[in-house]
Amino acid sequence: AQTVTQSQPEMSVQEAETVTLSCTYDTSESDYYLFWYKQPPSRQMILVIRQEAYKQQNATENRFSVNFQKAAKSFSLKISDSQLGDAAMYFCAYRRGGTASKLTFGTGTRLQVTL
Amino acid sequence: AAGVIQSPRHLIKEKRETATLKCYPIPRHDTVYWYQQGPGQDPQFLISFYEKMQSDKGSIPDRFSAQQFSDYHSELNMSSLELGDSALYFCASSLGVAGPTYEQYFGPGTRLTVT
After folding, report:
1. What's the 3-state SS for B65-87?
2. Do residues B17 and B112 lie in contact, with contact meaning Cβ atoms separated by under 8 Å?
3. Residue B26 contacts by C-beta under 8 Å, 6 or more apart in sequence?
4. pLDDT at B98
5. Are B98 and A98 in contact (CB under 8 A)?
6. Which residues on A lie below 8 Å from B103 (Cβ)?
7. What tens digit of pLDDT does each residue of B11-57 get?
8. B94 in contact with A at a CB cutoff of 8 Å?
């Protein structure tokens, strides 16, 4: 069974600074996808960024980027120029390839952004 | 753009009662997923449907049942409700086949409170 581990229950960053959230996963599959979801106080699940396992290039979306280390099964999220609106719970998620595959989430990291 | 619609948004039931949650996927999406998120927890996969057939099943209690209808909307039926069923229930939709649109788009969730 696939597992996703987030070892940082809480993180704090100052506004305009950079923070990295860690995620490791375990799978025997070769075809899979990794995601970071943001859950603000509204509890809406918002997709932040995705990474296809077959791609060597790290995904980037504006201020958000990932460091995907396939051999180490590591998938960290870097948030640059942090903003107050980035404060939320962040979940790392795994999905194997194929039709209609479920998401498996990590336990989440709560990010605080301070002035 | 149209999003996933869930109804009701909030539901209060008493123990041993029955609840029905509804999900309307994004137009042309053929796959629906249900997730349960307890307080302070990560979302847990319950069940999914692809083209109106059950495609995967997670840790869904026998008291719960679900189906996907001909118009692709889905309903989650929960009977003999217990206090522990109090949670946020997410529905997500996607196109089932792998490709650029493999992302799961989440609805706003239904908050179920069992008293």
Report:
1. EEEECCCCCEEEEECCCCHHHCE
2. no
3. B1, B2, B3, B4, B93, B105
4. 54
5. yes
6. 35, 47, 50
7. 999 999 999 999 999 998 999 999 999 999 999 999 999 999 999 99
8. yes
Instruction: Nearest chain A residue to B41 by CA: give it.
Output: A107
* Structure tokens, A22: 């860690």
**Is the CB of residue B61 less than 8 Å away from at least one CB of chain A?**
no
User: In chain A, what residues touch B96 (CB-CB under 8 Å)?
Assistant: 99-100
**What does the alpha-carbon distance between residue B3 and residue B80 come to, in Å, rounded to a whole number?**
31
Q: Which residues contact B31 (CB under 8 A, 6 or more apart)?
A: A99, A100, B25, B48, B49, B50, B51, B55, B93, B94, B95, B96
| Number of neighbouring beta carbons within 10 Å of residue B34 | 25
* Contacting residues of A for B106, CB less than 8 Å apart: 44-46
**Which chain A residue has its CA at the smallest distance from B30's CA?**
A100
Q: Which residues of A touch B37 (CB under 8 A)?
A: 43
Cα–Cα distance for residue pair B114/B13, rounded to 1 Å: 5
Hey, is A85 helix, strand or coil? helix
Q: Are the C-beta atoms of B46 and B36 separated by less than 8 Å?
A: yes
Interface test with A, best of B44, B51, B60, B102 (most A CBs within 10 A): B102
- DSSP single-letter state for residue A42: T
